[in-house]
Specification:
Elements (H helix, E strand, L loop, with lengths): L35 H5 L4 E5 L25 H14 L3 E5 L9 H10 L3 E6 L6 H10 L1 E7 L4 H8 L4 H14 L4 E7 L7 H11 L3 E6 L19 H18 L2 E4 L10 H5 L16 E4 L4 E3 L6 H4 L2 E2 L5 H7 L1 H4 L19 H4 L4 H8 L9 H9 L2 E9 L10 E8 L2 H12 L6 H7 L2 H9 L10
Parallel strand pairs: 1-2, 1-8, 2-3, 3-4, 4-5, 5-6, 6-7
Antiparallel strand pairs: 8-9, 9-10, 11-12
Helix pairs in contact: 2-3, 4-6, 5-18, 7-8
Protein backbone atom coordinates (compact mmCIF):
# COMPACT_ATOMS: atom_id res chain seq x y z
CA UNK A 1 0.00 0.00 0.00
CA UNK A 2 1.37 3.38 -0.96
CA UNK A 3 1.63 6.06 1.69
CA UNK A 4 -1.02 8.20 -0.01
CA UNK A 5 -3.38 5.21 0.15
CA UNK A 6 -3.07 4.81 3.92
CA UNK A 7 -6.24 5.11 6.04
CA UNK A 8 -5.24 8.66 6.96
CA UNK A 9 -3.55 10.07 3.88
CA UNK A 10 -3.59 13.73 2.81
CA UNK A 11 -6.74 15.79 3.38
CA UNK A 12 -9.19 16.06 0.48
CA UNK A 13 -8.30 19.25 -1.38
CA UNK A 14 -11.66 20.02 -3.00
CA UNK A 15 -13.32 21.54 0.08
CA UNK A 16 -12.21 24.27 2.52
CA UNK A 17 -11.16 23.06 5.97
CA UNK A 18 -13.34 25.61 7.75
CA UNK A 19 -15.98 27.11 5.45
CA UNK A 20 -17.67 30.32 6.49
CA UNK A 21 -21.01 29.37 8.00
CA UNK A 22 -24.14 30.85 6.50
CA UNK A 23 -26.40 32.89 8.79
CA UNK A 24 -28.84 30.77 10.76
CA UNK A 25 -32.30 30.02 9.38
CA UNK A 26 -34.92 32.40 10.74
CA UNK A 27 -38.68 32.69 11.15
CA UNK A 28 -39.37 28.97 10.87
CA UNK A 29 -42.98 27.79 11.21
CA UNK A 30 -44.39 26.57 14.52
CA UNK A 31 -47.56 24.63 15.22
CA UNK A 32 -50.56 26.59 16.48
CA UNK A 33 -50.33 24.99 19.90
CA UNK A 34 -48.58 22.41 22.04
CA UNK A 35 -49.92 18.90 22.42
CA UNK A 36 -49.92 17.10 25.80
CA UNK A 37 -46.97 14.96 24.67
CA UNK A 38 -44.98 18.12 23.86
CA UNK A 39 -45.63 19.49 27.33
CA UNK A 40 -44.82 16.15 28.96
CA UNK A 41 -41.25 15.96 27.67
CA UNK A 42 -38.75 18.47 29.05
CA UNK A 43 -35.09 19.14 28.17
CA UNK A 44 -33.09 17.85 31.12
CA UNK A 45 -29.74 17.98 29.31
CA UNK A 46 -28.58 20.78 27.01
CA UNK A 47 -25.46 20.88 24.84
CA UNK A 48 -24.58 24.46 23.86
CA UNK A 49 -22.18 25.36 21.08
CA UNK A 50 -20.90 28.70 22.42
CA UNK A 51 -18.93 29.46 19.25
CA UNK A 52 -17.87 27.72 16.07
CA UNK A 53 -14.38 29.19 16.42
CA UNK A 54 -11.74 26.53 17.07
CA UNK A 55 -7.98 26.16 17.60
CA UNK A 56 -7.78 22.68 16.05
CA UNK A 57 -8.50 21.38 12.55
CA UNK A 58 -9.92 17.92 13.26
CA UNK A 59 -10.40 15.74 10.24
CA UNK A 60 -13.51 14.15 11.75
CA UNK A 61 -15.19 17.40 12.87
CA UNK A 62 -18.92 17.21 12.19
CA UNK A 63 -19.42 20.99 12.32
CA UNK A 64 -16.33 21.85 10.21
CA UNK A 65 -15.43 24.21 13.08
CA UNK A 66 -12.77 26.88 12.78
CA UNK A 67 -14.32 30.28 12.15
CA UNK A 68 -16.94 31.99 14.29
CA UNK A 69 -20.46 32.04 12.90
CA UNK A 70 -21.37 35.45 11.44
CA UNK A 71 -24.40 35.80 13.73
CA UNK A 72 -23.49 34.29 17.09
CA UNK A 73 -25.56 35.27 20.12
CA UNK A 74 -24.17 38.22 22.08
CA UNK A 75 -23.70 38.23 25.85
CA UNK A 76 -27.14 39.63 26.63
CA UNK A 77 -28.86 37.09 24.40
CA UNK A 78 -26.79 34.28 25.89
CA UNK A 79 -27.66 35.23 29.46
CA UNK A 80 -31.33 35.38 28.52
CA UNK A 81 -31.00 31.85 27.14
CA UNK A 82 -29.56 30.73 30.49
CA UNK A 83 -32.70 32.06 32.19
CA UNK A 84 -34.94 30.30 29.66
CA UNK A 85 -33.15 26.96 30.11
CA UNK A 86 -33.51 27.22 33.87
CA UNK A 87 -37.22 27.98 33.54
CA UNK A 88 -37.64 24.94 31.28
CA UNK A 89 -36.11 22.64 33.92
CA UNK A 90 -32.71 21.96 32.35
CA UNK A 91 -30.52 20.14 34.89
CA UNK A 92 -27.15 20.02 33.10
CA UNK A 93 -25.52 22.21 30.44
CA UNK A 94 -22.43 21.09 28.53
CA UNK A 95 -20.54 23.86 26.75
CA UNK A 96 -18.89 22.92 23.46
CA UNK A 97 -17.59 24.59 20.29
CA UNK A 98 -15.66 24.88 18.13
CA UNK A 99 -13.83 25.58 21.33
CA UNK A 100 -15.90 27.26 24.02
CA UNK A 101 -12.98 29.02 25.75
CA UNK A 102 -12.20 31.00 22.59
CA UNK A 103 -15.29 33.11 23.14
CA UNK A 104 -14.40 36.20 25.22
CA UNK A 105 -17.43 36.06 27.51
CA UNK A 106 -17.40 32.29 28.04
CA UNK A 107 -16.75 32.52 31.77
CA UNK A 108 -19.54 35.08 32.23
CA UNK A 109 -21.98 32.72 30.56
CA UNK A 110 -20.61 29.72 32.44
CA UNK A 111 -20.99 31.45 35.80
CA UNK A 112 -24.60 32.36 35.01
CA UNK A 113 -25.36 28.69 34.32
CA UNK A 114 -23.80 27.54 37.59
CA UNK A 115 -25.45 30.34 39.55
CA UNK A 116 -28.85 29.09 38.38
CA UNK A 117 -28.08 25.70 39.93
CA UNK A 118 -27.66 23.83 36.65
CA UNK A 119 -24.76 21.40 36.52
CA UNK A 120 -22.02 23.02 34.42
CA UNK A 121 -19.75 20.82 32.29
CA UNK A 122 -17.66 21.22 29.15
CA UNK A 123 -16.20 19.17 26.31
CA UNK A 124 -12.90 20.47 24.93
CA UNK A 125 -10.01 19.61 22.67
CA UNK A 126 -7.78 21.15 25.33
CA UNK A 127 -5.32 22.69 22.89
CA UNK A 128 -4.95 25.91 24.91
CA UNK A 129 -6.58 24.98 28.21
CA UNK A 130 -3.85 25.96 30.67
CA UNK A 131 -3.56 26.29 34.46
CA UNK A 132 -5.01 29.82 34.45
CA UNK A 133 -8.11 28.80 32.51
CA UNK A 134 -8.58 25.74 34.72
CA UNK A 135 -8.47 27.81 37.91
CA UNK A 136 -10.95 30.28 36.43
CA UNK A 137 -13.25 27.38 35.49
CA UNK A 138 -13.16 26.07 39.04
CA UNK A 139 -14.00 29.54 40.36
CA UNK A 140 -17.14 29.91 38.22
CA UNK A 141 -18.46 26.45 39.06
CA UNK A 142 -17.53 23.81 36.46
CA UNK A 143 -18.43 20.40 37.87
CA UNK A 144 -16.61 18.22 35.31
CA UNK A 145 -14.73 18.63 32.03
CA UNK A 146 -14.28 16.06 29.26
CA UNK A 147 -11.17 16.27 27.08
CA UNK A 148 -11.13 14.71 23.60
CA UNK A 149 -8.43 12.06 23.08
CA UNK A 150 -8.72 9.76 20.06
CA UNK A 151 -5.71 7.46 20.15
CA UNK A 152 -2.00 7.32 20.76
CA UNK A 153 0.05 10.42 20.03
CA UNK A 154 0.71 10.14 16.26
CA UNK A 155 -2.86 9.01 15.58
CA UNK A 156 -4.43 11.71 17.73
CA UNK A 157 -2.28 14.50 16.28
CA UNK A 158 -2.97 13.34 12.72
CA UNK A 159 -6.72 13.28 13.39
CA UNK A 160 -6.71 16.65 15.16
CA UNK A 161 -4.61 18.30 12.46
CA UNK A 162 -2.15 20.14 14.73
CA UNK A 163 1.19 18.94 16.06
CA UNK A 164 1.27 18.70 19.84
CA UNK A 165 -2.50 18.23 20.24
CA UNK A 166 -2.09 14.96 22.15
CA UNK A 167 0.39 16.39 24.63
CA UNK A 168 -1.81 19.48 25.05
CA UNK A 169 -4.85 17.30 25.81
CA UNK A 170 -3.01 15.48 28.59
CA UNK A 171 -1.69 18.80 29.93
CA UNK A 172 -5.27 20.03 30.02
CA UNK A 173 -6.27 16.99 32.08
CA UNK A 174 -3.45 17.74 34.48
CA UNK A 175 -4.36 21.43 34.77
CA UNK A 176 -8.01 20.64 35.43
CA UNK A 177 -7.20 18.05 38.08
CA UNK A 178 -4.79 20.47 39.76
CA UNK A 179 -7.60 23.04 39.89
CA UNK A 180 -9.89 20.51 41.56
CA UNK A 181 -12.17 19.78 38.62
CA UNK A 182 -13.04 16.10 37.96
CA UNK A 183 -11.92 15.05 34.49
CA UNK A 184 -13.24 12.60 31.93
CA UNK A 185 -12.32 11.82 28.33
CA UNK A 186 -14.36 11.35 25.19
CA UNK A 187 -12.99 9.27 22.32
CA UNK A 188 -14.11 8.90 18.74
CA UNK A 189 -13.34 5.49 17.28
CA UNK A 190 -12.11 5.66 13.70
CA UNK A 191 -11.25 2.77 11.41
CA UNK A 192 -7.47 3.44 11.54
CA UNK A 193 -7.58 4.11 15.29
CA UNK A 194 -9.61 1.11 16.41
CA UNK A 195 -6.68 -1.06 17.47
CA UNK A 196 -5.25 1.74 19.65
CA UNK A 197 -8.30 2.25 21.84
CA UNK A 198 -7.26 -0.24 24.54
CA UNK A 199 -3.76 1.22 24.88
CA UNK A 200 -5.27 4.70 24.93
CA UNK A 201 -7.62 3.73 27.75
CA UNK A 202 -4.70 2.49 29.84
CA UNK A 203 -3.16 5.96 29.58
CA UNK A 204 -6.43 7.57 30.62
CA UNK A 205 -6.54 5.48 33.77
CA UNK A 206 -3.04 6.68 34.61
CA UNK A 207 -4.21 10.28 34.03
CA UNK A 208 -6.90 9.85 36.70
CA UNK A 209 -10.12 10.20 34.69
CA UNK A 210 -13.39 9.32 36.40
CA UNK A 211 -15.31 8.50 33.21
CA UNK A 212 -14.78 7.70 29.55
CA UNK A 213 -17.33 8.24 26.78
CA UNK A 214 -16.76 6.51 23.47
CA UNK A 215 -18.57 6.93 20.18
CA UNK A 216 -17.87 6.09 16.56
CA UNK A 217 -16.98 8.63 13.91
CA UNK A 218 -19.90 9.19 11.55
CA UNK A 219 -19.86 10.96 8.17
CA UNK A 220 -20.86 14.48 9.12
CA UNK A 221 -18.83 17.55 8.21
CA UNK A 222 -15.18 16.83 7.48
CA UNK A 223 -15.63 13.14 8.31
CA UNK A 224 -18.04 12.90 5.37
CA UNK A 225 -15.12 13.77 3.08
CA UNK A 226 -13.02 10.85 4.31
CA UNK A 227 -14.87 7.51 4.22
CA UNK A 228 -11.65 5.70 5.16
CA UNK A 229 -11.99 7.15 8.66
CA UNK A 230 -15.32 5.38 9.17
CA UNK A 231 -15.92 1.95 10.63
CA UNK A 232 -17.83 -0.52 8.50
CA UNK A 233 -21.03 -1.94 10.05
CA UNK A 234 -19.45 -5.38 10.40
CA UNK A 235 -16.70 -3.84 12.53
CA UNK A 236 -19.26 -3.47 15.31
CA UNK A 237 -18.10 -6.99 16.18
CA UNK A 238 -14.61 -5.65 16.87
CA UNK A 239 -15.76 -2.47 18.58
CA UNK A 240 -17.98 -4.29 21.04
CA UNK A 241 -15.25 -6.83 21.77
CA UNK A 242 -12.85 -3.95 22.52
CA UNK A 243 -15.38 -2.35 24.87
CA UNK A 244 -15.98 -5.69 26.57
CA UNK A 245 -12.27 -6.06 27.24
CA UNK A 246 -11.94 -2.47 28.44
CA UNK A 247 -15.01 -2.68 30.70
CA UNK A 248 -13.32 -5.24 32.92
CA UNK A 249 -10.28 -2.99 33.32
CA UNK A 250 -12.48 0.05 33.84
CA UNK A 251 -14.39 -1.61 36.66
CA UNK A 252 -11.14 -2.49 38.39
CA UNK A 253 -9.91 1.09 38.02
CA UNK A 254 -13.33 2.52 39.03
CA UNK A 255 -13.68 4.39 35.75
CA UNK A 256 -17.20 4.66 34.38
CA UNK A 257 -17.59 3.72 30.72
CA UNK A 258 -20.31 5.57 28.84
CA UNK A 259 -20.84 4.20 25.30
CA UNK A 260 -22.60 6.71 23.06
CA UNK A 261 -26.00 5.77 21.71
CA UNK A 262 -24.44 5.29 18.27
CA UNK A 263 -22.73 2.08 19.43
CA UNK A 264 -24.08 -1.35 20.25
CA UNK A 265 -27.79 -2.12 20.70
CA UNK A 266 -28.94 -5.33 22.32
CA UNK A 267 -25.95 -7.59 21.81
CA UNK A 268 -24.53 -9.90 24.50
CA UNK A 269 -22.66 -7.05 26.24
CA UNK A 270 -25.61 -4.64 26.48
CA UNK A 271 -26.36 -5.23 30.17
CA UNK A 272 -22.67 -5.20 31.05
CA UNK A 273 -22.13 -1.84 29.36
CA UNK A 274 -25.47 -0.13 29.98
CA UNK A 275 -26.99 -1.93 32.93
CA UNK A 276 -26.87 1.30 34.95
CA UNK A 277 -29.30 3.02 32.59
CA UNK A 278 -32.92 3.41 33.76
CA UNK A 279 -34.16 0.48 31.65
CA UNK A 280 -30.95 -1.53 31.93
CA UNK A 281 -30.25 -1.16 28.22
CA UNK A 282 -30.13 1.40 25.44
CA UNK A 283 -33.50 2.90 24.56
CA UNK A 284 -34.59 4.84 21.50
CA UNK A 285 -33.27 8.24 20.39
CA UNK A 286 -33.85 10.91 23.05
CA UNK A 287 -33.58 13.95 20.79
CA UNK A 288 -36.32 16.44 21.58
CA UNK A 289 -37.51 14.45 24.58
CA UNK A 290 -34.81 14.94 27.21
CA UNK A 291 -31.99 16.37 25.10
CA UNK A 292 -31.58 19.88 23.67
CA UNK A 293 -29.00 21.16 21.17
CA UNK A 294 -28.15 24.85 20.82
CA UNK A 295 -26.02 26.32 18.04
CA UNK A 296 -24.04 29.51 18.62
CA UNK A 297 -26.42 31.62 16.53
CA UNK A 298 -29.48 30.65 18.54
CA UNK A 299 -30.63 27.74 16.38
CA UNK A 300 -32.44 25.08 18.42
CA UNK A 301 -32.32 21.34 17.68
CA UNK A 302 -33.46 18.28 19.61
CA UNK A 303 -29.88 16.96 19.68
CA UNK A 304 -26.63 18.88 19.11
CA UNK A 305 -25.32 16.32 16.62
CA UNK A 306 -28.26 16.33 14.22
CA UNK A 307 -27.83 18.04 10.82
CA UNK A 308 -28.65 21.73 11.00
CA UNK A 309 -30.66 21.97 7.79
CA UNK A 310 -33.30 19.32 8.56
CA UNK A 311 -33.47 19.52 12.35
CA UNK A 312 -33.39 23.21 13.27
CA UNK A 313 -36.74 23.89 14.90
CA UNK A 314 -36.45 27.63 15.36
CA UNK A 315 -34.22 30.49 16.42
CA UNK A 316 -34.13 32.16 19.83
CA UNK A 317 -34.14 35.56 18.17
CA UNK A 318 -37.63 34.81 16.81
CA UNK A 319 -39.33 32.64 19.46
CA UNK A 320 -38.89 31.59 23.06
CA UNK A 321 -37.14 28.34 23.90
CA UNK A 322 -40.40 26.99 25.33
CA UNK A 323 -42.35 27.70 22.15
CA UNK A 324 -39.68 26.16 19.94
CA UNK A 325 -39.46 23.07 22.17
CA UNK A 326 -43.22 22.51 22.30
CA UNK A 327 -44.37 23.66 18.86
CA UNK A 328 -41.54 22.92 16.41
CA UNK A 329 -41.98 19.88 14.16
CA UNK A 330 -38.22 19.10 13.89
CA UNK A 331 -38.08 18.73 17.69
CA UNK A 332 -41.19 16.54 17.86
CA UNK A 333 -40.06 13.65 15.68
CA UNK A 334 -39.22 11.21 18.51
CA UNK A 335 -42.16 11.96 20.78
CA UNK A 336 -44.73 9.72 19.07
CA UNK A 337 -42.43 7.60 16.93
CA UNK A 338 -43.48 3.99 16.29
CA UNK A 339 -42.25 0.89 14.50
CA UNK A 340 -44.27 2.04 11.49
CA UNK A 341 -41.67 4.79 11.01
CA UNK A 342 -38.84 2.27 10.55
CA UNK A 343 -37.57 0.65 7.37
CA UNK A 344 -35.05 -1.94 6.20
CA UNK A 345 -33.73 -4.45 8.73
CA UNK A 346 -34.87 -2.33 11.68
CA UNK A 347 -38.52 -2.49 10.60
CA UNK A 348 -38.85 -6.19 11.44
CA UNK A 349 -36.19 -6.48 14.17
CA UNK A 350 -37.08 -8.28 17.39
CA UNK A 351 -36.06 -5.16 19.37
CA UNK A 352 -37.80 -2.67 17.08
CA UNK A 353 -40.26 -1.33 19.66
CA UNK A 354 -37.54 -0.68 22.25
CA UNK A 355 -34.79 0.58 19.95
CA UNK A 356 -36.69 2.33 17.13
CA UNK A 357 -33.50 2.20 15.02
CA UNK A 358 -31.28 3.72 17.70
CA UNK A 359 -29.31 6.88 16.99
CA UNK A 360 -31.10 9.19 14.53
CA UNK A 361 -27.88 11.12 13.88
CA UNK A 362 -26.04 8.02 12.68
CA UNK A 363 -28.88 6.91 10.42
CA UNK A 364 -29.47 10.31 8.86
CA UNK A 365 -25.87 11.24 8.06
CA UNK A 366 -25.22 7.86 6.48
CA UNK A 367 -28.50 7.26 4.67
CA UNK A 368 -30.19 10.66 4.44
CA UNK A 369 -33.15 9.51 6.53
CA UNK A 370 -33.81 8.00 9.94
CA UNK A 371 -35.34 4.63 10.78
CA UNK A 372 -32.65 2.13 9.75
CA UNK A 373 -29.29 1.76 11.49
CA UNK A 374 -26.74 -0.84 10.32
CA UNK A 375 -24.29 -0.09 13.18
CA UNK A 376 -26.02 -2.50 15.54
CA UNK A 377 -24.49 -5.42 17.44
CA UNK A 378 -27.65 -7.54 17.35
CA UNK A 379 -28.07 -6.92 13.63
CA UNK A 380 -24.44 -7.76 12.87
CA UNK A 381 -24.72 -11.02 14.81
CA UNK A 382 -27.95 -11.99 13.05
CA UNK A 383 -26.34 -11.42 9.67
CA UNK A 384 -23.22 -13.32 10.74
CA UNK A 385 -25.34 -16.40 11.42
CA UNK A 386 -26.31 -16.29 7.75
CA UNK A 387 -22.72 -15.70 6.63
CA UNK A 388 -23.61 -12.14 5.60
CA UNK A 389 -22.26 -8.70 6.47
CA UNK A 390 -22.94 -5.07 5.55
CA UNK A 391 -20.68 -2.35 4.17
CA UNK A 392 -21.32 1.34 3.48
CA UNK A 393 -20.51 2.81 0.05
CA UNK A 394 -20.47 6.58 -0.56
CA UNK A 395 -22.84 7.57 -3.37
CA UNK A 396 -23.18 11.36 -2.97
CA UNK A 397 -20.48 13.60 -1.49
CA UNK A 398 -21.18 16.25 1.15
CA UNK A 399 -21.46 19.85 -0.12
CA UNK A 400 -18.93 21.30 2.33
CA UNK A 401 -21.04 23.14 4.93
CA UNK A 402 -21.14 22.95 8.75
CA UNK A 403 -23.14 19.90 9.90
CA UNK A 404 -23.51 18.58 6.33
CA UNK A 405 -23.33 14.96 5.18
CA UNK A 406 -23.13 12.73 2.12
CA UNK A 407 -25.35 9.80 1.20
CA UNK A 408 -24.18 6.21 1.57
CA UNK A 409 -25.72 2.95 0.39
CA UNK A 410 -25.85 -0.29 2.39
CA UNK A 411 -24.24 -3.22 0.56
CA UNK A 412 -25.04 -6.72 1.85
CA UNK A 413 -22.43 -9.31 0.93
CA UNK A 414 -21.05 -12.72 1.92
CA UNK A 415 -18.24 -12.77 4.44
CA UNK A 416 -14.95 -13.88 2.83
CA UNK A 417 -14.30 -17.43 4.00
CA UNK A 418 -11.24 -16.68 6.13
CA UNK A 419 -12.85 -13.61 7.65
CA UNK A 420 -16.04 -15.52 8.41
CA UNK A 421 -14.12 -18.01 10.52
CA UNK A 422 -12.28 -15.20 12.30
CA UNK A 423 -15.50 -13.26 12.91
CA UNK A 424 -17.10 -16.29 14.55
CA UNK A 425 -14.00 -16.81 16.65
CA UNK A 426 -14.08 -13.14 17.71
CA UNK A 427 -17.70 -13.47 18.81
CA UNK A 428 -16.93 -16.62 20.80
CA UNK A 429 -13.80 -15.45 22.60
CA UNK A 430 -14.00 -12.19 22.32
CA UNK A 431 -10.30 -11.46 21.72
CA UNK A 432 -8.33 -9.82 18.93
CA UNK A 433 -9.51 -8.22 15.72
CA UNK A 434 -10.68 -9.25 12.29
CA UNK A 435 -8.00 -10.33 9.82
CA UNK A 436 -8.40 -7.32 7.53
CA UNK A 437 -7.96 -4.99 10.52
CA UNK A 438 -4.82 -6.76 11.74
CA UNK A 439 -3.31 -6.64 8.25
CA UNK A 440 -4.18 -3.00 7.70
CA UNK A 441 -2.70 -1.98 11.05
CA UNK A 442 0.67 -3.56 10.33
CA UNK A 443 2.17 -0.44 8.75
CA UNK A 444 -0.11 2.28 10.08
CA UNK A 445 1.86 3.32 13.15
CA UNK A 446 5.05 3.99 11.21
CA UNK A 447 3.14 6.03 8.62
CA UNK A 448 1.42 8.06 11.29
CA UNK A 449 4.65 8.81 13.09
CA UNK A 450 6.16 10.02 9.84
CA UNK A 451 3.10 12.06 8.90
CA UNK A 452 2.80 13.64 12.34
CA UNK A 453 6.20 15.27 11.81
CA UNK A 454 4.73 17.37 8.98
CA UNK A 455 1.75 18.78 10.89
CA UNK A 456 1.56 22.52 11.60
CA UNK A 457 2.10 23.75 15.15
CA UNK A 458 -1.08 25.82 14.97
CA UNK A 459 -4.00 26.27 12.61
CA UNK A 460 -4.75 29.25 10.38
CA UNK A 461 -8.05 29.07 8.50
CA UNK A 462 -7.33 32.12 6.32
Amino acid sequence: MKDTESPLGPRPKLLPIAPKAAPGRRHLPLAQGARPVDQYWRPLYAVWELTLQCDLACRHCGSRAGRSRPDELDTRESLDLVDQMHAMGVKEVTLIGGEAYLRKDWLVIAKAIADKGMELTMTTGGRNLDDEKARAMKAVGFRSVSVSIDGLEPMHDALRGVKGSWKAAFRALKSLKAAGIPVSVNTQITRPGLTQIEDTFDLLVQAGVHAWQVSQTVPMGRAADEPDLLLEPFQVLETMAVLYRIKKKADAARVRIWPGNDIGYFGPYETMLRGNMPRGHMSSCGAGRMTLGIEANGAIKGCPSLPTREYTGGNLRDETLKDIWERSEPLRFTRERTVEDLWGFCRTCYYAEDCLAGCSWTSHVFLGRIGNNPFCHHRTLELLREGKRERMVLKTAAPGEPFDYGIFEIVVEDWPADELARARELVATPEGFLLHTERAQAGIRARFEARAQDLPDSVDYD
